[in-house]
Amino acid sequence: MSINYQALSFEYQPCREQQDGVQTAAYPVVVVGAGPVGLATAIDIAQQGVPVVLVDDDCSLSTGSRAICFSKRSLDIFDRLGCGQRMVDKGISWNVGKVFLKDELVYTFNLLPESGHHRPAFINLQQYYVEGYLLERARELPNLEIRWKSKVVGVQQEGAAGTEGASVTLTVETPDGRYALCGRYVVAADGSRSPLRNLMGLDSHGRTFKDRFLIADVKMEADFPTERWFWFDPPFHPNQSVLLHRQPDNVWRIDFQLGWDADPVLEKTPERVIPRVQALLGPDAKFELEWVSVYTFSCLRMDRFRHGNVLFAGDSAHGVSPFGARGANSGVQDAENLAWKLAMVLAGRASDTLLDTYASEREYAADENIRNSTRSTDFITPKSAVSRVFRDAVLKLARDHAFARQLVNSGRLSVPAVLRDSPLNTVDSESFAGQMVPGASCCDAPVRVAGQPGWLLEHVGQRFTGVLFCGADGIDAATREALQALQRGPVPLMLVLVSIEDAEANRVALEDVLSNVKLLQDSEGLVRARYDATPGTFYLIRPDQHVCARWRTPDAGKVEHALKRALCVSGTA
Question: Which of 244, 445, 521, 566 could form an S-S bond across to 526 if both were Cys, CB 3.0 to 4.6 Å?
Answer without folding.
Answer: 445
